[in-house]
Design goal:
alpha/beta; five-stranded parallel sheet; about 20% strand
């Protein structure tokens, strides 16, 4: 039994078109599942407003969750800081990754925190892979695993 367990949901826009990246995302989410329940919901891609409405419908299902949207204007974390954030969260965490044109203003206003993976710009598929890897890394670190080398 893991000493630190978390319930995490990812709401992402659009299916992964690159099979290699999709496979890596699936692998990291599967590994993260050793530390709690992890699920990924994919909403259809459309225009930013339509994607925003679909994301908000998913967030409405999670009324008591801590909501975090990945956005270039958000707060940056080191891996250790992200792991501490996961540890401090006292409820389910829902992460949101938008499509190629970002998130609607309504989604940004609705979430508890905006998080920037980096000051660099990534494709939304690569951002999804980086998120999945960092989620696994953070959860593994909290559980004393060896994936994160200091």
């Amino acid at each position: 039994m893991a000493k630190f367990e978390r319930v995490v949901k990812l709401v992402a826009v659009g299916r992964m078109r690159d099979r290699t990246l999709a496979g890596l995302c699936d692998e990291f989410l599967t590994r993260s599942g050793a530390y709690g329940r992890c699920e990924c919901i994919v909403v259809p891609d459309s225009d930013v407003a339509g994607e925003g409405r679909a994301i908000l419908r998913e967030l409405a299902k999670e009324r008591n969750a801590l909501t975090v949207a990945l956005d270039e204007t958000g707060r940056e974390f080191s891996t250790a800081e992200f792991a501490e954030f996961l540890e401090r969260a006292d409820r389910k965490i829902v992460f949101v990754i938008g499509g190629p044109f970002g998130l609607s203003p309504e989604v940004k206003a609705h979430v508890s925190l905006l998080w920037a993976l980096s000051k660099l710009t990534f494709t939304h598929e690569l951002a999804r892979l980086l998120f999945c890897e960092q989620l696994y890394r953070g959860l593994n670190l909290l559980n004393g695993g060896s994936y994160h080398h200091r």
